[in-house]
Amino acid sequence: MILRRCSVLVGMLAIAGCATERGYEGPVRPARELAVIEGAPRVNAGLPLVPVIRKIDDRVLEWKYSSVEVLPGEHRLLVDCSRERSTTRYDLYLIARAGHRYVLVAESSPGNHSCESVRIEER
């Protein structure tokens, strides 16, 4: 019974970590007018490198959000990249275009001991 409850809790946390935050003020806009920036969920399922969006511009993302919708234009991201017990912080810049999706991709250092870099890929 306890194992089942733990499994349900872990599943709920994983789903919550995949939520998208609205990173702009004002009324809700259609997807075609927005860009989406995706990081990894803070609660991950064994991912070797985890690039997590901490801030977008001046907005701090809550733990439950792994991606953010933004208006087109220039954006500043603060990203933590974690590998086991090691975390490295990166400042990234992006000029986002409406209707586009951007994904944070982490690169491991030689020997896979830490996160060497994080880049943004358009997909």
Brief characterization of the structure:
This protein is mainly β and 123 residues long. The chain is built from one helix and nine strands.
Keywords for this entry:
mainly beta; four-stranded antiparallel sheet; 50% strand
Unreliably modeled segments: 3-17
In quaternary terms, these chains amount to: single chain
Number of helices: 1
Count of β-strands: 9
Instruction: Give the overall form.
Output: elongated
Largest sheet: 5 strands, mixed
Topology record:
Blueprint: H1 2-16, E1 19-22, E2 35-38, E3 50-56, E4 59-60, E5 65-70, E6 73-83, E7 86-96, E8 101-108, E9 115-122
Parallel strand pairs: 1-5, 2-8
Antiparallel strand pairs: 2-5, 3-4, 3-6, 6-7, 8-9
Describe this structure in words.
With 123 residues, the chain is mostly beta strands. The chain has one domain. It is built from 1 helix and 9 strands; from the N terminus they run αβββββββββ. The protein has one helix at residues 2-16, and strands spanning 19-22, 35-38, 50-56, 59-60, 65-70, 73-83, 86-96, 101-108, 115-122. Strands 1-5-2-8-9 form a 5-stranded mixed beta sheet, with no helix packed on it. The longest helix has 15 residues, at 2-16. The termini are far apart. Mean pLDDT is 85; it is low at 3-17.
